[in-house]
Design brief:
The structure is a single chain. By secondary structure, this protein is an alpha+beta fold. The chain is built from two helices and four strands; from the N terminus they run E-H-E-E-H-E. A four-stranded antiparallel β-sheet has the order 2-3-1-4, covered by helices on one side. A hairpin with a 6-residue loop joins strand 2 and strand 3. Helix 1 packs antiparallel against helix 2. The protein is globular. It starts with a strand and ends with a strand.
Amino acid sequence: MTRRLLTTRRHVPLDRADDYLEAWDTVRDAVEGAGGRAWIFRGAAHEDQFMEFVEWTDDEAPTLPDGVSAARAQLDAFAVPGVTEEWEDVQ
C-alpha cells in the first residue's frame, strides 16, 4: 500500500479562525472515518497562517475519498487555499 500526504497552506483572517478550526474538525472526522489521519499547525510567528496535513493509504484510488474532498471544500469559505501539494511514500 502506498501512503499519500496532502499538504495545504492557508491564510485565515483572525476573525474567522474559530470558524475555520471548527470546519477543520469536520475534515479530520471525514479523514479518520476513511481510515486516514489529519492534523493542522498554526504559524508560530503568524497566527493567521495554517498548514494542513491529510494522510491516507490507497493504491487503487490515489485521490482523496469523496467525503474528505467535500469537507475540505468547506474550508474554502474561510480561506482560499494557498499552496497545495500531494506527496507519496517512497518506501
